[in-house]
Amino acid sequence: MPEYSCDCCNFSTTKKSTFNDHLTSKKHINNSKNTDDIIETNDTNKYLLQIKELENELKMKELQYQLKIQ
Questions:
Q1: What's the predicted TM-score (pTM) here?
Q2: In what helix (H) or strand (E) does residue 21 lie, and over which residues does it extend?
Q3: 11 with 28: CB under 8 angstroms?
């Protein structure tokens, strides 16, 4: 039998109807909002780090180019 589980609520069941009920429960809605906030913050931080890394790469390329010219 397949098992349906919700990681953010630590909930699992073998019945799809019970799982669907869980998805509309207050507990799940509140937990998923909190989880979404955490994920969004982590994604934002990840993108900021990627931007900084790319900026640093560009600076290095500029310096390399300037050294070649001299």
A1: 0.48
A2: helix 16-23
A3: yes
Q: Give the number of other Cβ atoms within 10 Å of residue 49's Cβ.
A: 10
Residue segments in the chain with a per-residue pLDDT below the cut of 70: 1-2, 34-43
| Chain segment 26-37, per-residue pLDDT in tens | 888 888 776 655
pLDDT at 38: 47
CA separation, residue 57 to residues 39, 46, 60, 61, 62 (Å):
27, 17, 5, 6, 9
Helix (H) or strand (E) holding 68: helix 26-69
